Amino acid sequence: MLSSVDHQRLAAAVAAAEAKTSGEIMCVVADAVSDYRDVPIGWAAAAALLVPPLLLAAGLPLESAAAMAMRWTAGSALIGWFAAYVATQAVVFALVRWVAGLPSVRRVLTGRTAVRARVRRAAHAHFVGALTLVKPGQPAVLIFASESDRQLEILANPIIDAAVRPGAWATVADRAVQTVRDQGLAEGLVLAIALCGAELQGAFPDDGAVNALPDHVAEI
Q1: CA nearest 20: which of 216, 214, 209?
Q2: Cα separation of 125 and 96, whole Å?
Q3: Residue 71: alpha-carbon gap to chain centroid
């Protein structure tokens, strides 16, 4: 995801931003927060429930399939019909699961809202863990980027949110994401770090305290 040169640039950007503020800036980069393998299963299950009734409504003759099933089940016509119906569901499930499991199709079927929710959940989990490494009440900001998901989240503890201008982090994230699209991941992160540092500098100027966290970017 990031080259060694990128890591050096980003560490320098964090150090420069933190030199002007008492706040801490943490940066985490993930390839993807999930493989989304549950998405094809969900679509396949929905199709298996909905497609057979639609086929019946469209006039699909299950009688012939039921008659074939009778040869194997040696049961009543009702059992044969039921076996044919279940077999149809199984075929639909397997087919849809295979198609929806293709990476390009799975990405489309997942939807931006679901992707953003998972990225946000992963960012919150990392932020909660990172807060255990700083002093209680110390201003801290997390920049969390998921490259394959094409999402970037910025989280701050309540003391910062109460001090900076409303919507500051959303604005920073939007500008950073646009830069990622135009110039690449490293450039977008450098911009996000600089903008977060500017927001922190205004509300929490440097107090001369020792840097509590390393400046390097964590890749997961």
Answers
A1: 209
A2: 33
A3: 49
